């Protein structure tokens, strides 16, 4: 059986549900509504964010590839949660501040995909920088009706 297994990492972009609980729409929602951005711990945990167009391109290439092992599709560029919160606040005119809450014990310290296999076999790597992808995501989410 010709199967494909993709491991996706923190996909974001327009058409996200603004209240889905993930950090990208959470921070955007909080900033758009003047609410504090909630950072857990000191915000030193890292995440990597992959724009939806890059994710779709990677999955499409995987579907056409002669490989049947799991392939990581994501963006290996890491940002701390605190860096990400500050970027959102820099991109959205908001009076929001950052508030710190206790770090949940099950919160991963790092999320960074190893995409060497995707680069070699597909070949694929993400193209959209975080700031550019975030701009289109903010634009979409800011045009939704207020909740």
Distance between the termini: 46 Å
- Per DSSP, the total helix count is 5
Number-wise, the strands total 8
Structural class by helix and strand composition: alpha/beta
Instruction: Give, in order, the helices and strands.
Output: EEHEEEHEEHEHH
- Beta-strand content: 15-25%
With strands numbered from the N-terminus, the spatial order across the biggest sheet is 1-6
Whole-angstrom Rg: 16 Å
Helical residue percent? 25-40%
Question: The biggest beta sheet, please?
Answer: 2 strands, parallel
Apparent shape? globular
Overall pLDDT confidence: 94
Low-confidence stretches are none
Can you tag this structure with a few keywords?
16% strand; two-stranded parallel ribbon; two-stranded parallel sheet
Explained architecture:
- The protein is α/β, with parallel strands linked by helices.
- Helix content is 36%, strand content 16%.
- It has five helices and eight strands; from the N terminus they run ββαβββαββαβαα.
- Strands 1-6 form a two-stranded parallel ribbon. Strands 2-5 form a two-stranded parallel sheet. The chain has a two-stranded parallel ribbon with strand order 3-8.
- The chain is globular and about 50 Å long.
- The N and C termini lie far apart (46 Å).
- The model has no long low-confidence stretch (mean pLDDT 94).
